[in-house]
Specification:
Number of strands: 8
CATH superfamily: Aldolase class I
Helix content: 40-55%
Oligomer: single chain
Enzyme class: lyase
CATH class: Alpha Beta
Distance between the termini: 14 Å
Number of domains: 1
Keywords: Cytoplasm, Lyase, Schiff base
Order of helices and strands: EHEHEHEHHEHEHEHEH
Strand order of the largest sheet: 1-2-3-4-5-6-7-8
Number of helices: 9
Family: Belongs to the DeoC/FbaB aldolase family. DeoC type 1 subfamily.
Main location: cytoplasm
Pathway: Carbohydrate degradation; 2-deoxy-D-ribose 1-phosphate degradation; D-glyceraldehyde 3-phosphate and acetaldehyde from 2-deoxy-alpha-D-ribose 1-phosphate: step 2/2
């Protein structure tokens, strides 16, 4: 298992400065991680730092609460892609999902998925499982797949908890297509990462990628 290829090396703290961003890019190049995931304001820095490498540039959108209006999320995604993002991790409107407004959720995801795919970028959809019951997870799996997003992702890391193995099992139960799964939030050890990969995750979001690889 090439665990490094599963890792989205992540730095989303609001107090991150440019030196911090460059440092995680250097780490990602050394360990050949899948991507470096940062806030939109840092995308251009990452894209430049990762030039001539296989490491992808990833940006979060609608982060961390997903409460921006859809037009703002779309603009944010389009700007991140213009700045060099090849992967977008967007947060859904969790309140709309909990209200049962799956039409809104699907439409918003599809709008951003279409913008991403137009520019050959991937879309990962953060559903913040800590707030969801099984029925909500069933609903959001359908939303993600009906919108043609590439991944479903557990968590922002800013909710009441991060990923759980039950989350992944429920995703596997309700996903009907070949949508990939990203686990994130609270994954700090090699054993954690191995467990999620063995459960079927294609990506691991973590700020501790170096510690995981070095064991």
């Amino acid at each position: 298992m090439e665990m490094n290829k599963y890792i989205d090396h992540t730095l989303l703290k609001p107090n991150a400065v440019e030196d911090d961003i460059i440092r995680i890019c250097d780490e990602a190049k050394k360990y050949e991680f899948a991507s470096v995931c940062v806030n939109p304001c840092n995308v251009a820095i990452v894209k430049k730092a990762l030039a001539d490498t296989t490491v992808k540039t990833c940006s979060v959108i609608g982060f961390p609460f997903g409460t921006q209006v859809s037009a703002i999320k779309l603009a944010e995604a389009e700007q991140a892609i213009a700045d060099g993002a090849e992967e977008i991790d967007m947060v859904i409107n969790i309140g709309k999902l909990l209200e049962g407004n799956t039409e809104f959720v699907t439409k918003e995801i599809k709008t951003i998925a279409d913008a991403c795919h137009k520019k050959n970028a991937l879309l990962k959809v953060i559903v913040e499982t800590c707030y969801l019951e099984e029925k909500n997870i069933a609903d959001v799996c359908a939303c993600v797949e009906n919108a043609n997003a590439d991944f479903i992702k557990t968590s922002t890391g800013y909710g009441s908890r991060g990923a759980s193995t039950d989350d992944i099992k429920l995703f596997k139960k309700y996903l009907k297509k070949d949508t990939k799964i990203k686990a994130s939030g609270g994954i700090r050890t090699k054993a954690d990462a191995e467990m999620y990969i063995e459960l079927g995750c294609s990506r691991i979001g973590t700020s501790n990628g170096v510690g995981i690889i070095e064991g």
